[in-house]
Specification:
By secondary structure, this protein is α/β, with parallel strands linked by helices. Helix 1 packs across helix 2. It is globular. The structure holds magnesium ion (2 copies). The site of one magnesium ion has 4 residues, from loops.
Length: 237
């Protein structure tokens, strides 16, 4: 394989990011953005998905699609994930006090976080912030759950026992393993935004089929990435 300057650039970028990620973890220079989840039955705000953003002084805004895989590779996703959970719980508690309304907060989890210590850690957090477990949802992708399935399953069952909700994220883009929907303690399916935004040939058919399956299996559905009135109307119908 011939060397090309691109290879050096990519490696240099990765090393720089890795270094800055370590500094950012120490300095707490991450931020959470909260994407609203709306109940289509009454058009009321039901909750939020917490999304991490990172602005580095030197590197500028770094996309999560770039730094999350890197943090997963280095294991930094574990402390980072802990920070996300804590910050999201803190925010939820502060909104609860301010608006006297019970929102649901959903937090994305990485496969590496599914360890036996996760459930006790979350239990401590929800006690600390006085959060009803049903108000906290954890999102996991299909591929994350399929890796070392038995180990992950135990961890998910511990989380469900705490009373948390589990969401299957990005549904339709991975293996779409239908057996998982019944095997795992999932309450909600999150339909990937590429279907809502009509990026696939059979997007509408897939949306309708997913809804039908979820209805039969008694699962809730959240459609991701609704950005236009026509998308909203379609989903409503
Ligand atoms: Mg998600
Ligand atoms: Mg998603």
């Amino acid at each position: 394989h011939h060397f090309s300057p691109d290879m050096a650039d990519a490696l240099y970028r990765k090393m720089t990011l890795r270094h800055h990620l370590t500094l950012a973890l120490e300095a707490n220079s991450f931020e959470l953005y909260y994407q609203p989840i709306v109940d289509l039955n009454n058009h009321k705000l039901k909750g939020f998905e917490a999304l991490i953003r990172w602005h580095d002084e030197e590197l500028g805004q770094v996309s999560p699609t770039e730094f999350i895989p890197l943090a997963e590779e280095t294991g930094q996703i574990v402390p980072l994930g802990k920070w996300i959970l804590k910050t999201a719980c803190q925010q939820l508690a502060s909104w609860h006090n301010k608006y006297d309304h019970t929102f649901i907060m959903s937090v994305n989890l990485s496969r590496a976080q599914l360890q036996t210590s996760l459930a006790p850690m979350i239990e401590t957090l929800i006690r600390q912030y006085n959060i009803n477990p049903a108000q906290l949802a954890l999102e996991l992708t299909e591929s994350a759950m399929l890796q070392e399935y038995d180990e992950a399953k135990q961890c998910l069952e511990d989380l469900a026992t705490l009373g948390l909700e589990l969401y299957l994220d990005d549904f339709g883009t991975g293996y779409s393993s239908l057996s998982q929907l019944q095997d795992l303690p999932i309450s909600t399916v999150k339909l990937d935004q590429s279907f809502v935004q009509g990026e696939h040939k059979g997007s509408q058919a897939i949306i309708e089929a997913t809804r039908a399956i979820c209805e039969k299996l008694d699962l809730k559905v959240v459609a991701e990435g609704v950005e236009t009135i026509s998308q909203l109307k379609y989903l409503q119908n």
